[in-house]
Amino acid sequence: MRNNSDRQAWARERMLEKDIKPRGIKDEKVLEAMLKVPRHLFVAETQRMSAYEDHPLPIGEGQTISQPFIVALMTEALKLTGRETVLEIGTGSGYQTAILAELSARVYSIERIPSLTGRARKVLDSLGYKNVLVKLSDGTLGWEEYAPYDRILVTAGAPSVPEPLVDQLAPGGILVIPVGSNSLQELVRVTKSEDGSIREERMGSCVFVKLVGKHGWEVNC
Ligand code: SAH
Question: Considering the domain boundaries, does residue 30 fall inside one?
C-alpha cells in the first residue's frame, strides 16, 4: 500500500510523462523542478485529487493556478541557469514561484490580492524557500527596489507589455508575458540585448486571468 507522499510523487511523474514531455518540454532542470515541487500543497484540500491533472484549478478570489504544461512552457522559455534574479508578477497560489525558486538565485514575486499573498507566503515558507520575497502590490509597475531583473515572468494576461517591466529588465534579460484580449492571449518572449534593443517572439496561444493594474486592464473591465 502506497503512502500519501508516494502517491503524490507518482502522480507528478505521471504528469510529466503524459502531459509535459510529449508536448515538447525538454529542459531537464525544468522537468526536475516539476517532479519535485508538491503542486497539491498549493491548492485547496478539496482540489488535491486534481492537482496533477493538466488544467488550471480555482484558487479563490476568481483566480486560478496555471495548468502544469503552461508553467513548464513559460519556465523553459526563460532559459534559467540558476544564477538569475527573477521578478514574477501574479504570485497566485505560489506554485510557479516555487518552480522559479528551484531554478534561479532569487525570486521577487508580486500579487495584488491580499488573501492570495498571505496564503502563498505560508506555503512557500512551510516548504523552506528562503530565496523568495512576496509583496502585495500592483505588479504592472514592477519592483523598482531590486531592479534590474535578469528574468521577468508575468502569469496574468495583459493588453500590452507594461513599459515599467521592460525598463526593469537587465541587458541580456528575458521577459515572458501573455498578451492579447481578455479571452485569448499569445505568449510573448521579449529579449533585451546588451545594447538595450528589444526583440519579441510569439510562442503560441494561451488563456490567462487578467493582469489588472495601472499598465494592465482596468479593475472593472
Ligand atoms: N502563477 C500563479 C497564477 C495565478 S493567476 C500560480 O501558479 O498560481 C494570476 C494571478 O495574477 C492572480 O492571482 C491575480 O490576482 C494576479 N494579478 C493580476 N493582476 C496583477 C497585478 N497587476 N499585480 C500583481 N498580481 C496580479
Answer: yes
212 lines ligand 1 (CB under 6 A): yes
Note the pLDDT tens digit of each residue in 120-165.
Answer: 999 999 999 999 999 999 999 999 999 999 999 999 999 999 999 9
Q: How many domains are there within the chain? A: 1
Whole-number Å distance, alpha carbon 64 to ligand 1 midpoint, is: 8
Residues facing 210 on adjacent strands = 157
Indicate yes or no: pTM above 0.90.
yes
Q: How confident is the model at residue 3 (pLDDT cuts 50, 70, 90)?
A: confident
- The residues, any chain, with a CB within 8 Å of residue 125's CB and separated by 6 or more, are none
Backbone angles phi, psi at 117, to 5 degrees: -55, -50
The domain containing residue 170 runs over which residues?
4-206
What is the set of active-site residues? Answer: 66
Asked if residue 136 has its Cβ within 6 Å of ligand 1, the reply is no
Distance 211 CA to ligand 1 centre (A): 7
